[in-house]
Amino acid sequence: MRRLLFGPLGLVLLIAGLVWYLSLDLADIKRAPLDDRQPEITLQDRAGVTFASFGDRFGEYLTLAQISPWLPKAVIAVEDRRFYQHPGIDPIGIGRAFVRNLQAGRVVQGGSTISQQLAKLAFLTPERSLARKIKEALYTLWIEARFDKEEILELYLNRVYLGSGAYGVDSAARRYFAKPASDLTLAEAAMLAGLIKAPSRYAPTRDLALARTRAGVVLSSMVDTGSITAADA
After folding, report:
1. Model-wide pTM > 0.85
2. Three-class SS string for the chain?
3. What pLDDT digit, counting tens, does each position of 155-201 carry?
């Protein structure tokens, strides 16, 4: 009995119980990030021409099949290469990020997976604490148990913040390229995927040259993962 309670099986049962307990009080993940959004306000002149807008922008909720196929590939390549292999938390990715940050002497790469990022977007605050990290891990495991990988990716792409008040890839595509996310080219998809790391810094409306440089990093990552060829890049 003691081995059952304190051994590996006991730990698994404890984690499973915590995930189940948290799931009892979870909001609808498709609406959770929308509950506290700021309303968008658009100012127009007498001729109906928009000259300013404020607040959060949400585009249409798109299924994965409706989004340009380049965009999911770009996001996975630059944010979470092992997305389809890990169970939500990726020890290999964390180790790789630790080594790269140690070599650089600063933080140049994060270890969070797409599932972890979705957990943060949907359920957590920016607070930095041990309790929050534990909650993040539990929520991540719950998300992985509740949804398949395609659903997780779809939810993430529709909720991720991409700068200039734009939440979700459709809103960002319309904000930066005046087109829906379904029509993004490879170059545009790479630029949007590059925004995730630092939306304000890499926004093309703020620094186009830097946004292009970051898009180049994304394209290189896509080549490394086999998503595109060097000629495509």
Report:
1. no
2. CHHHHHCHHHHHHHHHHHHHHHHCCCCCCCCHHHCCCCCCEEEECCCCCEEEEECCEECCCCCHHHCCCHHHHHHHHHHCCCCCCCCCCCHHHHHHHHHHHHHHCCCCCCCCCHHHHHHHHHHCCCCCCHHHHHHHHHHHHHHHHHCCHHHHHHHHHCCCECCCCEECHHHHHHHHHCCCHHHCCHHHHHHHHHHCCCHHHHCCCCCHHHHHHHHHHHHHHHHHCCCCCCCCC
3. 999 999 999 889 999 999 999 999 999 999 999 999 999 999 999 99
